[in-house]
Write a structure and sequence with these properties.
The protein has 66 residues and is mainly alpha-helical. Helix content is 29%, strand content 6%. The protein has one domain. It contains two helices and two strands, in the order H-H-E-E. It has a two-stranded antiparallel ribbon with strand order 1-2. Monomer. It comes from Hypsibius exemplaris (Freshwater tardigrade). Pfam families: Nt_Gln_amidase.
Length: 66
């Protein structure tokens, strides 16, 4: 299955919603066997913030986005 970036819905600063929309697109265009082998994991901690490196919103590629 090939999904191009231009086919996906993207909203800046809404990571979880973007993943939800991507998963929905995969479900819409895939068979059940592929869907059952897919996983999505959201990382968090007690402070509810996780540094994620190399994001487009980072000031530099080696800086995290909080």
């Amino acid at each position: 299955m090939d999904i191009s970036r231009s086919e996906c819905i993207y909203t800046a600063c809404y990571c979880e919603e973007n993943i939800w929309k991507l998963c929905k697109k995969v479900c819409d265009f895939s068979d059940a066997a592929l869907i059952e082998s897919c996983w999505v994991i959201f990382l968090s901690n007690s402070e509810r913030c996780v540094p994620i490196f190399k994001q487009m919103k980072a000031p530099r590629p080696d800086h995290p986005v909080f």
